[in-house]
Amino acid sequence: FPTWKRTLARRARESQMKRFCKAQAIQRRLEEIEVTFRELEQQGIKLEKLLRDENESPADQQTQWTNQLLYLVQKKNNLMTEESDLMIAVQELKLEEQQCQLDEKLRSYMNKEDTLKTPEDVKAEQEILKQLVEVVNKRNVLIQLQEERRLSEL
């Protein structure tokens, strides 16, 4: 087993572990965001009830409640943006994993001598290459989407 093949296999395992760890971190953050959404929702409901029920409250108290409500809405919007970014990151990880698998398959076909390839091998190699290009294009679209969102936020 040549050294370069062992190195490729090790690097593939390392990148797979990195993707797995990143996916776990994203999942944890999405769960945290969900909990925070529920907490913000409960706080918002309380503030809305206070604003509706307490018409005789001093104006400065109502202003304070309104400001708190607006702050909660802003916080919720920020969390929604973060959640959306994380969902894009999940898609990107899936495509990256798919790309690595296709790379590995394609490499196995390309390492085979052309004289030993059957017509089925050639066809399979072309199909994998086509799928690989599709995955790369999908990743490119996601990256462009992220860049457009980042620029629009600025």
From TrEMBL:
Tree of life domain: Eukaryota
Organism: Oxylabes madagascariensis (white-throated Oxylabes)
MF terms in GO: monooxygenase activity
Keyword Hydrolase annotated: no
Coiled-coil boundaries: 23-50
Keyword S-adenosyl-L-methionine: no
Protein name: MICA1 monooxygenase
Taxonomic lineage of the native organism: Eukaryota, Metazoa, Chordata, Craniata, Vertebrata
Pfam families reported for this sequence: bMERB_dom
Location(s) in or outside the cell: Membrane
UniProt keywords, alphabetically: Coiled coil, Membrane, Monooxygenase, Oxidoreductase
Positions of transmembrane segments: none
UniProt domain BMERB: residue ranges: 13-154
